[in-house]
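This section describes the prediction task in plain terms. A model, or a person checking by hand, is given the sequence of a single protein chain and must write out its three-dimensional structure as a string of tokens. No templates, partner chains or ligands are provided. The sample shown here is typical of the held-out split.
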Amino acid sequence: MRRLALALLVLALSAAPAPAAEAPTGQMTWGVHTTLVPSYFDPAETIIGTSYMVLYGLHDALVKPLPGKNLAPALAESWTVSPDGLVYDFVLRKGARFHHGEPVTAEDAKFSFERYRGIYAKTLKERVAALETPDPRHFRIRLKQPWPDFMIYYGMYSASAGWVVPKKYVEKVGDEGFKKAPVGAGPYRFVSFSPGVELTLEAFEGYWRKSPSVKRLVFRVIPDPSTRLAALKRGEVDLVFSLVGELAEEARRTPNVTLKAVYPSVHWLSFTEQWDPKSPWHDRRVRVAANLAIDRRGLDQVRTGGLSRITGSIVPTTAEYYWAPPPPPYDPVRAKRLLAEAGFPNGFDAGDYYCDMTSTDAAEAVIGYLQAVGIRAKLRPMERAAFNKSVADRKLRGLVQLIGPGGLGSASRTLEAYTSAGGAFAYGSYPDVDGLFREQATLLDRAKREAILHRLQQLVHDKAAFAPLYELAFVNGVGARVEEPGLGLIAGFAFSAPYEDVKLKGPGVRL
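The expected answer:
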């Protein structure tokens, strides 16, 4: 009888409904270092990585990076690849819905791919033979030829063609209407946007992965870093992005404020005129001189307190097929000697030096190093979205300080974008580099592909095609109310994510 009673009790407990998840509560506020623009609300228009700060809240992808996984199932519960590498089949998650209640279907995934017009649209679409939707839960992509990097582009941060928007709604309101009132399938729904001021999102409790913990997210635009830190210290915001130099040290000394560094990007100087025979930059000796003129460790110490990773490559150290060249030494004496050998004993005027305005402090330091050996340039900082659009349109000439993707992916992704003919951000290319790139582009043999990509990276290094600076330590400040800021949960990601994982401390916690 006792055994029977115990069995009945266990059966009753197992049949009882699980306790309901707690409803989202509270508000978490970010102090954002750069201007938010409406194009960030539409996955079709992604040009730069900053867009994903918003996409991870409003929208969702078939697959995407998540904690512990470079590529994780999301709106697609699974996917398979044919043995010949030509067919990718995605099975959509049953029950996934957009914020307005409609189910996510294969037609939405196909529509989202087709309307994608971001920076890697040409790279992605020219390799696709067909998009198919056998039924509402199955989406199929056929490639023209094997492309081993397909999922790096489709599922990571290069292209956002895999981020799904509701077809019927977009067709009803149009592209501009969608940016004014976006509807997605992410963990948070759109509430309001005040240009240049702030964006407000609210928890979507029907999100498939889990219901968010925090009810409301606010992204407040505070471009000035000292103002951001002051707002954090006063408790007006809970997290701030991008604290550099002395401000990071001040934050470290502030009670109830903690610092969190992530490594989302590689920074380097691009010589956009090196293919012009009339330009000083056409001479390799001049490019080597510029590399030798820069004190990278001194730059890192001033900007991030020595937390950044000095590198000799534009490819992130964590990328698949990465080859590690030695970082250029700091040798201004040899730099001057090389300039003299190239015919510039008194240096030369290099024209304009362009940068993203959030990196102005680093650009000023680099300009100082160059000027010390005789290379004179004028600083031209630009707002981030405009800067990246200008780079993509190849409108900037002279010296351009670039921010390339770090973290996840393959070396070939960076090399294609910045060194190959027709690359999304390439101002020119070399025939031997293009030849090696084409040779590895469709190889499914990993060992052979690795050997070619290593040779390719060595070739770019030997040409001194760029002046690598560092893998930036993106240093952020976290306030006392925050239990989980979401920083670093996804390897190589710059911002807080996934947003459904961020948490505030309970009301009983003493701050």
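For orientation: Confidence is low (pLDDT under 50) at residues 1-19.
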